[in-house]
Amino acid sequence: MSAETVDRAATGARRGPETVRVGRRWQWPRGMWRRDHTSVAPRATLAFALGAGAIASLILQVTVVSVAYLLTGAAVAATAFATVRPRPTRLQIGAVLGALALLAVAAVRGAEWLITLCVVASWVVGSVALVGGWTWTGLALASIALWFTPVRVTGWVRRGRARLRTGRGVKPGRVAAVAAISAVLVLVFGSLFVSADPQFAELFGAVVPDVRVTNPVGRLILGFLVMGAALAAAYLRRRTPRFDAMAPRPGRPVARWEWAVPLGLLDLLFAGFVAVQLRVLFGGDGHVQDTDNLTYADYARQGFWQLTAVTVLTLVVIAAAVRKVDRRDAGDRLYARLLLGALCVLTLVIVASAVHRMSLYESEFGFTRLRVSVMATELWLGVVFVLLLVAGVRLSARWLPRAVMASAAVGLLGFAALNPDGYIAERNAQRYADTGDIDVEYLRGLSVDAVPALDRLPEPARSCALIGMDVGDGAAWYEYNHARSRAREILRARPVGECTARYSLG
User: Fold this and answer.
1) Does a cis peptide bond (omega within 30 degrees of 0) precede residue 401?
2) CA–CA separation, 350 vs 333, rounded Å?
3) What are the extents of the domains in the chain?
4) What's the confidence (pLDDT) of residue 454?
5) Could you tell me which of 427, 424, 448, 431 has the C-alpha nearest to residue 503?
6) How far apart are the C-alpha atoms of 63 and 387, rounded to whole Å?
7) Alpha carbons 75 and 56: distance in angstroms, whole number
């Protein structure tokens, strides 16, 4: 063995389980992807994935908020968890149910901006259910794990198809041919019977889905993408990567004074800010009116940016400090609990102040999507700070990343249950009854979720707010949406009249 070879081997030994460089490409660390001795896509997985793609092609329209999102997500989840071993754990089952619950919002609410948030959150929660993870790095990589699998899944599926071709069972090509022939026969003879008898036409229309293929190429592409996502999900269940191995290693503890002094000074700074700014933090309406050149917009905006800055600062400080604390020393643990706990408590005071400021702002100028979303975000950040406080007391943050993600998912479901567009319309309608001020132009841009609240407005404000509201026709069952269905019933019972008045902005 040459000296150069020995030097290379020694260098590799010193690096340990680092990412290995092969030629000019960087490879995953060894052991990152769990081995699969079969290394072949099961027949059931291929069939379920094909079914998921077919469902998406037939019923899913990205631009239409409907129950189709839930049905497509359920088909993908069935492909990953019903056709692949090992059996899912209770935690995985809970995460999958949470992801499906987020998709179910599309069957209940009609606000597209809210559905977009829920679909993205469902993707993240579902990906974590497949891969798992305990660290921030592991969860972050798990949320995009499906994008790492195209090449791997292609080989996995190709080997599965080769096994199907050489097996003695039913060939997938024959299945596809029989399915195509059956569909053509049903459609041809069914159309003849439909034209022959109106009653049979009604029965046939109720049984056979009315699929309106307005964009066949786009539908096929969407179905192919969903099928690929289902196969990738099944592959991740079969060969689950260990992304936690990519997380930074714990830092080496340092002397107590090296981290206690900065934390102590930071606590004093926070305490001084809260003590001096008590009138600012809790002065409320009186403080705004007594202070020159201070508006409600400035008052609320100042609190929000304080909260944002404090959030980032607290997360960074806690992440850095915990890595430097010697957890084996009882004195270090005590000082860390006191200093970090005080920082979290003071941050909670600022959270409460920001929520109070935004409440005053909304009472004065009305409710909008941005203001309600900011309020919800502030409340969730308060929950995050409480979790940080608990982690500081226990000096154990292994559970913290999952807890923060779970709180975000539960918070988003709660936000959807609140029905933000409906809540905005209801509060603005109440404000109109109290003050006579209303921003009809803004209310007109709300979704069908706001129709029940806007319907209670007196005329002509009601018609001015509801004019142009798109409630759809509800012809296809897979386009069902509870909010649209309810709005359609309301507007059929009380049609929108003419807008005969002008309203100033609130």
Assistant:
1) no
2) 26
3) 43-175+211-245, 256-417, 421-493
4) 92
5) 431
6) 37
7) 9
CA torsion angle 83 84 85 86 (round to 10): -100
244's CB contacts (< 8 A; 6+ apart) are 133, 134, 135, 137, 138
The upper half-sphere exposure of residue 223, i.e. CA atoms within 13 Å in the direction of its Cβ, equals 18
Which residues are registered as beta bridge partners of 26? 21
CA 399 distance to own-chain centroid: 20
The confidence score (pLDDT) of residue 449 equals: 94
Alpha helices in 60-135 (DSSP H): 68-81, 90-108, 112-131
* Segments of the chain scoring below 70 in pLDDT: 1-27, 31, 36-39, 160-180, 182-184, 187, 191, 194, 197, 200-202, 204-215, 276-308, 311-312, 394-396, 474-475, 501-506
Q: Are 454 and 439 in contact (CB under 8 A)?
A: no
Q: Which tokens hold the place of 43?
A: 């027949």
Q: Is 47 exposed, middle or buried (CB count within 10 Å of its CB: 0-12, 13-18, 19+)?
A: middle
Query: Nearest 5°: CA angle at 456, between 453 and 460?
Result: 115
Helix axes 216-238, 112-131, angle to 10 degrees: 30
The residue whose two tokens read 């008590």 is: 278
Give the position of tokens 């089952």. Answer: 93
Structure-block tokens of residue 341: 């706990």
Q: Name, in order, each residue with C-beta under 8 angstroms of 494's C-beta and a sequence gap of 6 or more.
A: 455
60 near 222, Cβ under 8 Å? Answer: yes
